[in-house]
């Protein structure tokens, strides 16, 4: 087991038209690890990937593969010499080549040895029976499997994937993602995946690097980055959120939901108390009767139902509080109260995030 990252990038910078698109980005990926660059469109994810691949040139910073520098401000290994595989949204199989020809493309050496590698990979991705077919005879999901086999054929040490599954329908996408992950891990390939979909990142990644405005703002395992977001915007990127504002006084923030501890924040600081909809609770015991005590979850607050929708596994209920604050609650069952219904809401303190307001 090596401690040397398969891929390491240090302080990458890139600008276009005077705008800093990638701003001091550093990360590392170990062999067999899947790291996801996650963020909204235009945040610098794809440009980072293209610099690693050698398609774009960084203004500064360096890139290492297995501890050896392949690129910095002066020295640059060409793309074909980096041992890096690429999979993009447009996987672009060669239409004039068979499945076998596509997978063998770029392989060097004896034809018999190459044929064995082609058959091995097509077997792994469940496409061996289509070895003599042509791309136009395949479905989108089948073409995706062939594209994966083609990218893996030269045994790249690193695989870069830019939104590779976005063209597939939801059910097929889940299957292909899981199969792809199994094959990549079995090959021991270090994977850097770019996506703007939090669900895809949570499903595939061992580590997520959340990007915003050209910078990595938070890195961590999916569980940690979801449950300990660095700021309000990070919390909101992974799910809907509710937000209640308050002002700090004596390390406490007073809200209609009760007091919240905010140690270390100066008096007068305006904070946002953030809670996800699934952690908003309805106090059915006080339904229509009003609160009579402060309980473990805090003080119940009256909400008026604006709309309710069944989402398949749960119900989403939207409320308006008496002060005009909008709040959403997710109920893990069929629960569809009529518009105008009065219900009492509580928020779990152990599931709240408190951030100083930045704007």
UniProtKB/TrEMBL annotation:
The keyword Hydrolase applies. The keyword Lyase does not apply. CDD domains: ABC_Carb_Solutes_like. GO terms for biological process: quaternary ammonium group transport. Keywords: ATP-binding, Cell membrane, Hydrolase, Ion transport, Iron, Iron transport, Membrane, Nucleotide-binding, Transport. Pfam families: ABC_tran, TOBE_2. Its EC number is 3.6.3.30. SUPFAM superfamilies: MOP-like, P-loop containing nucleoside triphosphate hydrolases. GO terms for molecular function: ABC-type ferric iron transporter activity; ATP binding; ATP hydrolysis activity. InterPro entries: AAA+_ATPase, ABC_SmlMolc_Importer, ABC_transporter-like_ATP-bd, ABC_transporter-like_CS, ABC_transpr_FbpC, Mo/tungstate-bd_C_term_dom, P-loop_NTPase, Transp-assoc_OB_typ2. GO terms for cellular component: ATP-binding cassette (ABC) transporter complex. This is Fe(3+) ions import ATP-binding protein FbpC 2. The gene is fbpC2.
């Amino acid at each position: 087991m090596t401690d040397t990252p398969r891929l390491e990038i240090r302080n990458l910078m890139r600008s276009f038209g005077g705008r800093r698109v990638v701003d001091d980005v550093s990360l590392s990926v170990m062999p067999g690890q899947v790291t996801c660059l996650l963020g909204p469109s235009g945040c610098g994810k794809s440009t980072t990937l293209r610099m690693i691949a050698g398609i774009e040139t960084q203004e500064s910073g360096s890139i290492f593969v297995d501890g050896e520098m392949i690129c910095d401000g002066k020295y640059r290994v060409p793309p074909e010499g980096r041992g890096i595989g690429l999979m993009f949204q447009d996987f672009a199989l060669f239409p004039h080549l068979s499945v076998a020809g596509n997978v063998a493309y770029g392989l060097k050496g004896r034809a018999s040895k190459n044929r064995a590698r082609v058959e091995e990979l097509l077997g792994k991705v469940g496409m061996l029976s289509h070895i003599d077919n042509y791309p136009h005879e395949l479905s989108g999901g089948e073409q995706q499997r062939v594209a994966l086999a083609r990218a893996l054929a030269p045994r790249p040490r690193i695989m870069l994937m830019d939104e590779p599954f976005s063209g597939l329908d939801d059910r097929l996408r889940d299957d292909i993602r899981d199969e792809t992950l199994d094959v990549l891990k079995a090959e021991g390939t270090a994977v850097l995946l770019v996506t703007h979909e939090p669900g895809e990142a949570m499903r595939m990644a061992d580590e997520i690097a959340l990007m915003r405005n050209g910078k990595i703002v938070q890195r961590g395992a999916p569980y940690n980055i979801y449950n300990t977001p660095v700021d309000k915007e990070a919390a909101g990127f992974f799910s809907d959120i509710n937000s209640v504002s308050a002002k700090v006084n004596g390390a406490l923030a007073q809200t209609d939901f009760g007091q919240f501890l905010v140690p270390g924040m100066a008096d007068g600081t305006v904070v946002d108390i953030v809670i996800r909809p699934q952690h908003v609770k309805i106090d059915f015991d006080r339904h229509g009767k009003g609160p009579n005590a402060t309980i473990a979850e805090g003080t119940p607050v009256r909400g008026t139902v604006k709309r309710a929708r069944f989402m398949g596994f749960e119900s989403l209920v939207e409320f308006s509080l008496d002060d005009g604050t909008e709040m959403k609650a997710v109920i893990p069952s069929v629960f569809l109260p009529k518009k105008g219904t009065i219900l009492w809401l509580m928020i779990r303190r152990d599931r709240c995030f408190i951030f100083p307001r930045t704007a």
